[in-house]
Amino acid sequence: MTHAHSHAHGHSHSHSHDGHRECSTPPPPPGTVDLEQMHLKAEAERKRKEEIARATSDQGEGLPPVVEVTAQNLEAEVVVRSEQVPVIVLVGAAGAADSLRLRTELEAMAREAELNWILAWVDADSQPQVARAFGVQALPTVVAVAMGSPIGMFAGEKTRDWLDQWVAQVMEATNGRLKGLPAGTRMAGAGAGEGAQPEAPTDFFGNPVPTSDPRLEQAEELLAEGNFDAALSLYDAMLKSEPANSGLKRAHANVAFFARAAKIDRTADPISLADAAPGDVAAALDAADVTMLVDDPAKALDRLLRLLPTVFGKDRESIKERLLEYLLLFDAADPVALDARRRMASALF
């Protein structure tokens, strides 16, 4: 058996005529600068900066006033962004009613602020390492970040007046100390100025709703207040008036989803409960909602699609209705939705 033999310095050995081994290329003396390693590090740092610059620019499409933060974009969306404008970080649980209400309030404020500050949402359930990075002890928690460092924090729900005052204090503390966004940066979704066509009505989630029903505005106000049930009642009424309105159907599905999610008992993990009782339809529906909230729609659909062929009567109807509601939230050509429709048809017929 032969053994490969390598040397740390990469030099080769040869034998001299007198039989002694000698190095054909002597090793570099201690402390010598490794130019190749320096080049690789500099290139990696240059690429990292380019990626961050790209992530923090508006990409020509406008800068969103609300971003979702993960471990992958934490540096760009919070650390680097906070050198330009304050970043208000909300760390919460996607399925918890208090987190949903506070997120709704802060999102409305962020849009009104028009990029004077940015709201960053962190789902503590799917991004526990990011939540730990902010030293969160309770949910929901809000942290103001400027120049990459926390400058203020509070926990729990607050009134709109209280939030307005707190954000005003953050803005006062950072006034004149940050670089500001690059000239010409505009907010995503903002109008193009004079001469622009009036925007079509949209629901609370930014989806177009082709309707002139005055109740739409009232429903949006209720959603901004976190009153999902009252908003859902208005969407029910609007949908009865315009049953063929696909935009209203999609908005209704969104509101119904959040209204349900706000009521899910989070003292125990709904996903673990459903896994432990695979035939429990109510548990499966709750688990699917929570899975949708943490942005894993394919997994949420799969849970219900696997259960659908095994149940009958009211249970089957409940799962079918929930699947149809979920599918309203997808683009018709989305591969996930296309696959779900195929599997659903196969199970039902």
Written overview of the protein:
Strands 3-5-4-6-7 form a 5-stranded mixed sheet, with helices on both faces. A hairpin with a 2-residue loop joins strand 6 and strand 7. It is 48% helix and 10% strand. Mean pLDDT is 79; it is low at 1-25 and 191-200. With 349 residues, the chain is α/β, with parallel strands linked by helices. The protein has helices spanning 35-56, 74-80, 97-113, 128-133, 160-174, 215-224, 228-241, 246-261, 270-276, 281-293, 297-307, 314-327, 335-348; strands at 13-15, 21-23, 66-68, 87-92, 118-123, 141-146, 149-155. Helix 1 packs across helix 2 (74-80) and helix 9 (270-276) runs antiparallel to helix 10 (281-293). The radius of gyration is 27 Å and the shape is globular.
Strand order of the largest sheet: 3-5-4-6-7
Number of strands: 7
Spatial shape: globular
Low confidence ranges: 1-25, 191-200
Largest sheet: 5 strands, mixed
Strand content: 5-15%
Q: SS-based structural class?
A: alpha/beta
CA-atom Rg in angstroms? 27 Å
Straight-line distance between termini: 64 Å
Helix coverage percent: 40-55%
If you average the pLDDT, what whole number results? 79
Number of helices: 13
